[in-house]
Specification:
The protein is of the alpha+beta class. It has eleven helices and 25 strands. The chain has two domains: 2-173 and 389-472, Zn peptidases (Aminopeptidase, 3-Layer(aba) Sandwich), CATH 3.40.630; 175-387, 2-Layer Sandwich (Alpha-Beta Plaits).
Length: 474
């Protein structure tokens, strides 16, 4: 049991932001070789570690233990941390593990640590095992998309990338990533303008799938509302605008550098006072710490965007948040949209969106809405990535076994549920037809934020539950 936490501490020392997984991939290969286990590392750095069946389990269907090795890397604004080399520093507080000023990476380091512990425990009885560790799940599921089916022989897949002890995930939404790109039309700044920074901060942010229904503020959309309101009475120019970290993360911070007439700065400051009151009222439950600031820029800007009005129009027009609730499953979001990232470079300004839906036609409709807005504004619209949904399997044998083992172990039925978020099971179902799949996880909270934490006792119970399931898959 202690190995689970030893391995979690070990992988927390290894860089593993999405898109930068070579170090953690190499670590897992070294781990496998040190324990004389067969290992495959593919061209995108996915790792598959194989262990033969226990005596008496040779004829049982093979089991795939699956999780992703990458993590969403975010840090507090005042935290000095380089995710390419600095370890994630763990803090143990009562029954919880936190990180010191950064995201924790329990999503999905828990899966990696538990699978490693199972692979090295000779007392666990199990069918043939394949521990499948994928890359880039958080950004685009690149790893799952590039899995070679010839490397996989298991017929049952246990995904360890959900949250909530006593819950068995049986279905998930599909997703689509898109961008809207605006030519900034950079022009020389006028000498009668001053550089000021407008920022929105103090928001909780969070996972754009599991927490999109909590009405948490989207910093990019709120910044757009504020700038649009200022612009109506005090036209200005954007010199730089940015917000968010990942398309699938509700942005908690956004800021714009604007060039504003020197004699109108006081008017803008009055607007900021008004908006602080508005947002404190609108988000008095979900985001009590929200704040808006207008400050003199740290540097002077000599270029400004002639497309400023178009940027503000699009920020105002694009939908965001929950678009439809499921009519089949109570309290389940069916369709949503998250404006997750806004960036500025020499060419222009880019909006990055994450669309989710368990209904393919609804997903397409939201895409068409964004495309239409882009077309009306005469700007570029692109599809970046797409992944399928995982449909409920009414004849799943592994679900029946997981339910039975849970009831025998804890004296109650587990909750069977679906989520409005993407897990890699949809892609595995597409690539490996006939897989019998289930997903589970420990009590973990605030994924993709600096408040991410996981229950120590729940991790222990998840490991013990998994071991009992493997024993029953004979």
């Amino acid at each position: 049991m202690e190995k689970v936490f030893t391995y979690f501490e070990d992988i927390s020392k290894v860089p593993r932001c999405s898109g930068d997984e070579k170090a953690i991939s190499d670590y897992l290969v070294s781990f496998a070789k040190s324990h004389n286990l067969e290992v495959i590392q593919d061209d995108v750095y996915n790792v598959i570690i194989k262990k033969p069946a226990s005596p008496g389990y040779e004829d049982a269907p093979g089991v795939i233990l699956q999780g992703h090795m990458d993590m969403v890397c975010v840090k507090k604004s005042n935290k000095v941390h380089d995710f390419t080399k600095d370890p994630v520093v763990l803090k143990y507080i009562d029954d919880m593990i936190y990180a010191d000023g950064t995201s924790l990476g329990a999503d999905n380091g828990v899966a990696v640590a538990i699978a490693m512990a199972v692979l090295t425990n000779e007392n666990v009885k199990h069918p043939a095992l394949e521990a499948l560790f994928t890359v880039d799940e958080e950004s685009g599921m690149t790893g799952a998309k590039n899995i070679n089916p010839e490397h996989i022989s298991g017929k049952i897949l246990i995904n360890l990338d959900s949250e909530g002890e006593g819950k068995l995930l049986v279905s998930c939404a599909g997703g689509l990533g898109t961008t809207i790109n605006i030519d900034a039309g950079w022009i020389d700044a006028s000498s009668d303008l001053d550089s000021y920074s407008v920022s929105v901060s103090g928001l909780k942010g969070g996972h754009s799938g599991t927490e999109i229904d909590e009405e948490r503020g989207n910093a990019i959309k709120l910044l757009g509302r504020i700038l649009y309101d200022i612009y109506k009475e005090t036209p200005f120019y954007i010199a730089n605008i940015k917000g968010g970290t990942k398309a699938n993360v509700i942005p908690s911070y956004a800021e714009a550098e604007i060039l504003i007439p020197k004699d109108r700065v006081l008017d803008a400051k009055e607007k900021i006072k008004k908006w602080n009151k508005i947002l404190k009222n609108e988000f008095k439950v979900s985001d009590t710490d929200v704040e808006v600031f207008l400050e003199k820029s740290a540097e002077n800007y000599y270029k400004m965007s002639s497309s400023t009005e178009k940027v503000l129009d699009i920020l105002t027009a694009v939908p965001n948040g929950v678009q439809a609730m499921s009519t089949s499953i109570d309290s389940l979001v069916e369709t949503s949209l998250n404006l997750g990232v806004l960036t500025t470079d020499d060419k222009g300004i880019c909006f990055e969106f994450s669309i989710r839906s368990s209904v393919g036609t609804r997903k397409e409709y939201v895409k068409e809405q964004l495309y239409t807005i882009a077309k009306l504004a005469d700007v570029e619209f692109k599809i970046i990535d797409e992944y399928p949904s995982w449909e409920y399997n009414p004849e799943s044998k592994v679900r029946e076994i997981c339910q039975r083992v849970y009831k025998e172990k804890y004296g109650k039925e587990p909750e069977i549920f679906a989520i409005h978020a993407g897990v890699e099971c949809g892609l595995f179902e597409e690539k490996l037809p006939g897989l019998d799949m289930i997903s589970m996880g420990p009590n973990a909270y605030d994924a993709h934020t600096t408040n991410e934490h996981v229950s120590i006792s729940s991790m222990k119970r998840l490991y013990e539950y998994l071991v009992d399931i493997l024993k029953e898959l004979k």
